[in-house]
Protein 1
Amino acid sequence: MVKVSHLETDIQRVVADIIHNEVKDNLGFITITGVKITNELSYMYIYYTVFGDAKVLEKTEIALERANGFIKNQIAQRVKMRKVPALIFKYDDSYNKGQKVEDIIRKIK
């Protein structure tokens, strides 16, 4: 059996490829930052960042939800899994948090 962390890395690469090359909606500058599969294989959390303001983020969220079924189908075709869990896209705001911390450090200096 494939280790989950290895599987998550493979799926991260596959999802990035699907989004950049096959999803018809314009998702802008999106990066898949990680994938986490729950222990019972019921859910697959796909974390992403997108360059832009709140309006761009909202458009990206809508486009990802619209493409959810297509992306899941493509994962099923490309990755060897008995069952592909339900996909849940989550915005990864760690970059923004890091920027805020960096700004605070700069103000202190």
Protein 2
Amino acid sequence: MSDDGSTMAPGTVVADRYEVRRLLGEGGMGQVYEAVHKLTRRPVALKILRPEFAQDGELVARFLREAQAAAAVGDSHVVDVFDMGRVAERGAFYLALELLSGQSLTDLIAREAPLPVARVVHIGQQIASVIGKAHRCSPRIVHRDLKPDNVFLIERDGASDFVKVLDFGIAKLLGERSLDGPAPMSLTHTSQVLGTPLYMPPEQLKDSRSIDERADVYSIGVILYEMLTARVPVAGASLAEQFYLLMSEPIAPLKSLRADVDDALASLVERCLSRDPDQRPRDATALAESLAALARRAPTTAVEPDAMAMASTLHATLSNGPTEPRNITVAPPRPSGTTVAPPSRKTVVVAIAASLLVTVAVIRRTLVATPTRAPTSTLPALDLPDARALESSTSDAAVPIVAPASAPDAALAVSQPTPTGPSPAARASRRAPSRADAGPALRAFANEQ
């Protein structure tokens, strides 16, 4: 960045070691460039504070805090800070950050929301986990500006949606000492509101110095709500209106906007959004644990054990011969609103194998049950009754169809319904329970810190 604050041209060298390639973005406090270290050739994101703020001790301290907080948390879900310094003597300060390739959560929500429930839980669990780690630092760190803009999704080890949390620049430190020693615990005055109001709890809008870890829990709740519904729970046109709506208007229940959301997840998100901090999860770690429990409950390949058991039973029948009839337990209907996972490839293969085994079993039983006729024998003439007499004799009764005597299982017997109602076997089958398959921004941008 030049002395007048204009954009740096490609090829500009910063602090004798970072060569600028291109501008990535800019905000009220500075600009971010793609650059490369001249010696190691490592690509970096170079974040530069505007020169006019270089003499503002509070803003410089906030800039420094971003690097210190990232180092203190020390987690793969926090963007790495490699270096910090000044562009020139008494010039602008810079941060050399990990260069990320992917998309912001803001872009994903704008393009694809509402997102699948499992994906929301996966992303939300990662955000809560890393923020929970910040809450356990010494001193404890509250991010205070969690929003989709500060959540970046990259691909890591072949897996997509790996979360990187950005911008700890306005983080609040809770404890007796700050990260760098005797500095004040907060860089904000009571009258200042830092962060993005759409994602801030009422207590942060009222007094930014009165917050604790539960403020971040509220912000994560807003992010979860927005991923699930494509809208924020409260959207005021001004700071005053936002605060008024937060304190007076009820939030639309998640289930009223997204019927397929699990009751437990809907309840958890709504607890995060409570006006009363005491009603929220105690910190982000508790929230992460709850989301992890929901992820473990999600159906994956629940049909596979049934298919494997059926194939095993058929194999035993064909190998060992006829067996006694078995009691079959039918699963009760699924609760309304649950989601049935589609069958996996393994399930389909097992089902096809089971079908082939059934076919072989039927053919085998038919061949065994069919008597061999001597080719030289002759059958005596049958004295058949008159067709009209037969019709008369069968008009008031059903003609039973009896299975071959060699049938090994009583379940192979089939009977026709009588005029007075279904057969006993049919009535019994109707009493058995059956399996019911369930059916299936306003966004404010904070200045770049």
Protein 3
Amino acid sequence: MTSGPGLDRLSREELALLVPEYLLAGHLIDRAGMPHLIGAFGRDGMRDIAIEEWMGASPVYTRRMQRALGFEGDSVETIFKGMQIDVGAPPQFMDFRYVVTDHDHGEFHLDHCGALMDVEPMGPDYVRAMCHDIEDPTFDATATASNPRAQVRPVHRPPRVPADRSPHCAWTVAIADDHPAVPVPEEAKAMAATRAAALELGPIDPDDPGRHDYAGPLEPDLVFSDWSASALRRITDEVCLQGHLLALSFLAAVAARTTSPEEAVAFGRHQFSGVAGVAAERLRDALELPPTLEGAAILLGLHPGLLPYGYVRCDVELGERLLVRIAADSGAVADGAWPSMLDADHLEPLDAIVRALDDHLRCRPVSDDADGLVVEVVRGDSPMPETDDVVLTKFSTGAAFAFDARGTPVELRTSHTPVD
């Protein structure tokens, strides 16, 4: 069995099941990277890197998703649609509820904020860093993908008073000609120059049964099972690319604060390893994969750190041996994205993926040359312990979060009454 585009092997139902998983995996990228930053740069350094990271990636990938699903525009509704398919807001874990009043006005609140659940135990200073310092510039930066004169402003937000206040936060969005235009962040200009930003992905087949675009009205919950298999593959590839852009933006912000490229890459490897293991466990459970080499081949072919195929060029071959080949001339390697951090001496992210199926599985280098990296998945004599990177990522409530099967969406509210 040779697996290039592993998504092609999935049914429409399986793809619909996995889209929220890929969105949540992208959100966990921060949970994998930030603990290491706190240790090296303190809370304030972590905060500043997070601001630059999201300001760099989100305007770029938001425009990509708008183009892919045909909902480009300059309205509040367009902004909300983009937020619904954004690794910064995985459904349910970040349970955004939207109110569209007109073209220029709307509101949203979070009935559940998984990020708050992760940070609240760390104390009010960390909550303020996330819900005030980070959100203020990054919400507006994301909105620039649709309208530079959009302003996202809080009605209320944590620290919560009282401690069990619900909804967790509430915000208004307004567009006006007299609002000063938010400039495209310099970080976003840098990300727009990457191979990831310019990557051409396969078009959505209009003859494939199911939904093909998001040109209609905003829906409170996207029901991914309504979408065609072709559209779901494109959404998945775009979501995985969001993760790579976020990691690239993270790496750029870290590199500006370290003394050598090698030091910055070390932070990237920790981040990759942590999210690789947690995402692999969630994909394993969602697809009920067996603890075999066959299961490992499927998992490697579907892992978000190794997709989209056109960017990473990761081939998985299962015959008498299970081999993984990552091309040296891929866009991911040219950009310095996660796959470029893998070599014969640094296979920790791949080990974390296969260990999710069986803690005896590990990766052994076969070759590492100008053509790329080849590793073999083998079974060791003793179990491999879980790495600190994965353990740290599992402090996030997202690691064990369970998605609910939500039924037919209710009609959107249309009042302009502020949310308390």
